[in-house]
Amino acid sequence: MPDFIPTADTDLLAWANPFSAKLTATPTAYGVTAGNASTLAGLLTTFSTALAAATNPQTRGGSTIAAKDTARVNLVANIRQLARQIQGTITVTNQQRYDLGLTVRDTTPTPVPPPAFSPTIMIESTIGNTVRIRLVDSENPTRRGKPAGVRGASVFSFVGDEAPTTEAAWKFEGNTTRTIVDVTFPPATAPGSKVWFTAFWFNPRSQSGPPATAVGVNIPGGAAMAA
């Protein structure tokens, strides 16, 4: 976000004059006190005087430039302090902030839609009764991370010769924010059993996308190989 404080000294002076004038006229309307406005006005006068001396060929020199720089630092620090106070005042409107020359924050959140695509499931390894799967962005398969707008994935498994056709038959293995997931089946799972996996992405609001095409693999053994 760009800084609301102008970089050039002359631009800062031109910006700060109406800023100070508005606060002096009605300080409480902007969430500050008359004392705050008075302090700002004094720092602004000091900076204006120092800037004039630092830019006048007859008075310009090392000492006047240093005085101007010090006055600028003090003025800017005070303006930033007041700006934070104004931004934090709930009764100050965005129109008032705009009139002061402050940054108007966008308070309207951009909604993240539910994921439009399902992950692609890849079998990484089978060691004992543990199967490691990788969830891949189906729209960008060479990308290692999750798709944009995706917070994580819900992973499901099933043990049987064919993948189930009803949602209730799947076993929920959990939610994950990682793309590599280890699923360990019970020790009683028979050696050579066919196991299946599906998953879906979800966004930061926990809204889910479509399920992945089920992928199956035979585990080489249950408790026997894990021992």
Kindly summarize this structure in a few lines:
This protein is α+β, with helices and mostly antiparallel strands and 227 residues long.
Can you walk me through this structure?
The protein is α+β, with helices and mostly antiparallel strands and 227 residues long. It folds into two domains: 92 residues, no CATH class; 108 residues, Immunoglobulins (Immunoglobulin-like, Sandwich). Helix content is 33%, strand content 22%. The strands form two sheets. Strands 4-3-6-7 form a four-stranded antiparallel sheet, with no helix packed on it. Helix 1 packs antiparallel against helix 2 and helix 2 packs antiparallel against helix 3. It is elongated, with a radius of gyration of 32 Å. The C terminus is likely disordered.
Q: Gyration radius, to the nearest Å?
A: 32 Å
Low-confidence stretches: 222-227
Please tell me the CATH architecture of the largest domain by its name.
Answer: Sandwich
Sum up the overall morphology in one term. Answer: elongated
Give the count of structural domains: 2
Mean of pLDDT: 92
Distance between the termini: 57 Å
Keywords for this entry:
single chain, 227 residues, alpha+beta, Immunoglobulin-like, four-stranded antiparallel β-sheet, three-stranded antiparallel β-sheet, elongated, disordered C terminus
